[in-house]
Design brief:
The complex is a heterodimer of chains A (349) and B (367). Helices cover 74% and strands 4% of the residues of chain A. By secondary structure, chain A is mainly α. Chain A folds into 2 domains: 87 residues, no CATH class; 222 residues, MetI-like (MetI-like fold, Orthogonal Bundle), CATH 1.10.3720. In chain A, strands 1-2 form a two-stranded antiparallel ribbon. Chain A starts with a helix and ends in a 7-residue tail after the last helix. In chain A, 36% of the residues are buried. The radius of gyration of chain B is 22 Å and the shape is globular. Helices cover 38% and strands 20% of the residues of chain B. The chains are: A mainly alpha (349), B alpha/beta (367). At the A-B interface, α10 and α11 of A face α2 and α4 of B. The structure holds adenosine-5'-diphosphate (ADP), iron/sulfur cluster and magnesium ion (MG). The site of adenosine-5'-diphosphate has 13 residues of chain B, from β1, β2 and α1.
Chain lengths: 349, 367
């Protein structure tokens, strides 16, 4: 088991390296000069050169990088080194020596420096991450809990009015654009009808868990509805399938009551694939819930990614892409380990 | 109650019909049989003949489904088709239990063997987990699981196929039920293990004095286990009687077909395997007349196209009371001895021919 975990982590690290390399290559293939963006609107060639040096980008002439291979390779190497050992900015040594008072240290794992925001990417990401994490956590709890409960209800009432209603509604919810639900909740439930106050993120540290949770309610519902529809349908299908299993028939033949047959025997088996799905979906939301964060103006990773994209703030984009990738890879490993605990057949021995 | 009977289990005109989009599937269509305590009934037939559906009906496993069930299932005088769902639930595993063909899929993969045995016990006995565990270990030991106090915490996949079936038997008998239904209990196992499991069932039957219904498509299993045999075809009994009668002087061509396709009944080098041609019929639109007629090589021996047009009744055969058959053939013994048996077992055929001649001259002598 341990050897397996180590192997998986090793493969994960390699995947991340490849991912970062691809991101860099794409970055260099772009016709846009990031130094131009980093330097701002009123940029002279000198200022742009300074920005380039400070970010550690290789020189570029008429939109084409000068040293074709060496440039990206060096930059990627610097970036990777920064992840492991930390880095100092500006990247250019002469600039650091000229103005030591302006040197910013970015400790490992250093994701880079945003010239645009005058902050390390780490600072920006660590400010945004708790917000995204909070929304994702609240949403995953909602969608798994209600998705499974409603799915089970549909399964046990299969073919009835209730079942058809649930299946129809979840299809409807599935087809509905998330921004519509989110906008509706914000505009009507919060602003127009005033049923709840307009949500704004409040950390547990400053407002306590109740306030934190209350403010997360609308964004979490928006995000959860998106996933819940598919969890309802998956749960329904899995439970219906496991109800036809031989071991469920055995349980009935033993004289076990219907409730125990459903929850102890049928649902137990159906939960395994659901837990796997939930883990992976949760991880993918951790990379940023772009629509939800934008509607409710929560400054999470999703919103950060959007603004980095608009500003061509490449260090931030690379940092977020890598983090999102790391979450998914990590979630895969965790889910696989979890699987061994849920399903005794996977366990070694 | 139409038939006053003293049998432990008495099934009368049992019908289990499934309405489907294409029509009604008559999986069980008028089945009757009796079984005493301590005795074994073998139900034989190819797959799809309605064996599992019929036996599941005894446990009330079709309740809550769309199945239409009629007839009587009298267990110790109580009609199981009339009791409430809750009452039926209480009887499952306590008065009647069932073990299934594939013990790997029939046991829950996520719970230990012990957990599943304990559950079976605690559903019907208000005892602590500890007491149930002791009972589970005791039963595992009884069915021959080595180191039962350790194996009780294993998961089903950690058991071998034979061990799993032993554990299933332990689970089925943990409440000492009067009736045990074993649905193809050895089909998924290899031959040596099959024999061990059958021996175990026989041992336990003697010990607990339970009635057993053993379902199989293997007449070899029937020969070893059963006191009575019921041969099923297309949801109906086509031959029913004491095992010896049915194996030695079967009177229905379908039974002949089953016998010819089982090499190990005769266990003779000269015997050979003759499979039944064709496939079992659809239970949606069963053939007219005798359901076996499309596959029966003896149709021509019955005058007037009766096989295709008139369904034969289940009537007493030539060996007297207790041996019932559903076939129009006027002289099945002769056909069997002269045409069927020589095909797959010449030695037995000679013996039977001698016996028949002797019986014949006896009859003549009496006249
Ligand atoms: N729930 C059901 N709905 C419709 N048909 C069914 C159902 N259950 C069983 N059958 C049909 O009943 C027939 C008999 O099945 P079964 O009793 O399992 O056969 P056997 O055990 O003899 O192999 C099969 O043709 C099967 O398709
Ligand atoms: S009734 Fe006719 S078709 Fe049916 S088994 Fe007898 S001989 Fe064959
Ligand atoms: Mg069957």
């Amino acid at each position: 088991m341990l050897a397996y975990v180590i192997r998986r982590i090793f493969i994960g690290v390699i995947m991340l390296l490849v991912m970062s390399l691809v991101t860099f290559v794409l970055f260099f293939a772009s016709p846009v000069d990031p130094a131009q963006f980093a330097c701002g609107k009123n940029c002279s060639p000198e200022l742009r050169e300074q920005a380039r040096k400070s970010l550690g980008y290789p020189p570029r002439n008429q939109g084409v990088w000068e040293s074709n291979i060496k440039g990206p390779a060096n930059m990627w190497a610097d970036f990777t080194k920064g992840i492991v050992a930390g880095r100092d900015f500006p990247a250019d040594k002469e600039m650091r020596e000229a103005a030591p008072q302006n040197v910013v240290h970015c400790s490992a794992p250093c994701l880079g420096y945003s010239q645009y925001s005058v902050k390390t990417v780490n600072t920006m990401v660590s400010a945004a991450f708790p917000i995204t994490f909070s929304i994702a956590l609240a949403a995953v709890i909602l969608w798994v809990l209600f998705g499974v409960l409603i799915g089970v209800l549909a399964a046990v009432t299969k073919g009835s009015f209730i079942d058809r209603g649930i299946v129809g509604l979840s299809l409807f919810a599935y087809a509905f654009p998330a921004f519509f639900i989110g906008t509706f909740l914000l505009r009507y439930v919060a602003i127009k009808w005033g049923l709840v106050s307009v949500p704004s993120y409040t950390p547990i540290a400053s407002g306590g868990p109740a306030k934190w949770a209350f403010n997360l309610m609308l964004p979490a519902i928006t995000l959860a509805l998106l996933y819940m529809a598919s969890y309802v349908r998956m749960t329904r299908a899995f439970v219906l399938e496991s109800l036809t299993e031989d071991y469920v028939r055995t349980a009935r033949a033993k004289g076990v009551s219907g409730r125990v047959v459903l929850f102890k025997h049928a649902l137990r088996a159906a939960l395994t694939p659901l837990v796997t799905m939930a883990g992976l979906d949760f991880a993918s939301v951790l990379g940023g819930a772009i629509i939800t964060e934008s509607i409710f103006n929560f400054n999470g990773l999703g919103k950060l990614a959007v603004s980095a994209n608009n500003n061509y703030d490449l260090p931030v984009m690379i940092g977020i892409v890598l983090m999102a990738g790391a979450f998914v890879i990590l979630a895969n490993i965790i889910v696989d380990i979890l699987y061994a605990f849920i399903d005794p057949r996977v366990r070694v021995g | 109650m139409s038939t006053a009977t003293s049998s432990f289990l008495s099934v009368r005109d049992l019908k289990v019909h499934f309405p489907t989009a294409d029509g009604i599937v008559k999986a069980t269509d008028g089945l009757s049989f009796d079984l005493e305590k301590g005795k074994t009934l073998g139900i034989v037939g190819e797959s799809g003949s309605g064996k599992s559906v019929s036996s599941s009906a005894i446990l009330g496993l079709h309740r809550g489904s769309s199945a239409q069930i009629s007839g009587e299932i009298l267990l110790d005088g109580v009609d199981l088709l009339q009791v409430s769902d809750e009452e039926m639930r209480r009887r499952r595993g306590l008065d009647v239990s069932m073990i299934f063909q594939d013990p790997l899929s029939a046991m829950h993969p996520y719970y230990t063997v012990g957990n599943q045995l304990m559950e079976a016990y605690r559903v019907h006995n208000n005892v602590s987990k500890k007491a149930a565990r002791v009972r589970a270990i005791e039963m595992l030991e009884r069915v021959g699981i080595p180191q039962p106090d350790r194996r009780v915490d294993d998961y089903p996949h950690q058991f071998s196929g034979g061990m799993r079936q032993r554990a299933m038997i332990a689970m089925g008998l943990i409440n000492n039920p009067g009736l045990l239904i074993a649905d193809e209990p050895t089909t998924a196992l290899d031959v040596t293990v099959q024999a061990q499991i059958l021996d175990l069932l026989q041992d336990l039957q003697r010990e607990f004095d339970s009635a057993i219904i053993i379902i199989t498509h293997d007449l070899g299993v029937v020969a070893e286990m059963a006191d009575d045999v019921l041969v099923m075809y297309a949801g109906k009994a086509v031959e029913y009687g004491p095992t010896k009668d049915i194996l030695v002087r079967p009177e229905m061509p379908y039974t002949w077909g089953l016998l010819s396709s089982v090499p190990d009944v005769a266990a003779d080098t000269s015997s050979k395997l003759v499979p039944i041609p064709g496939n079992p019929p659809s239970l949606l639109n069963p053939p007219t007349g005798c359901a076996f007629h499309p596959r029966c090589p003896h149709v021509a021996k019955v005058p007037g196209d009766l096989c295709r047009t008139v369904q034969p009744d289940l009537v007493t055969g030539r060996q007297g009371l207790g041996h019932l058959k559903r076939c129009h053939l006027a002289d099945p013994d002769t056909v069997y001895a002269n045409e069927v048996l020589p095909e797959f077992d010449p030695v037995l055929a000679d013996e039977l021919a001698d016996e028949l001649t002797a019986a014949d001259s006896n009859e003549k002598g009496l006249q």
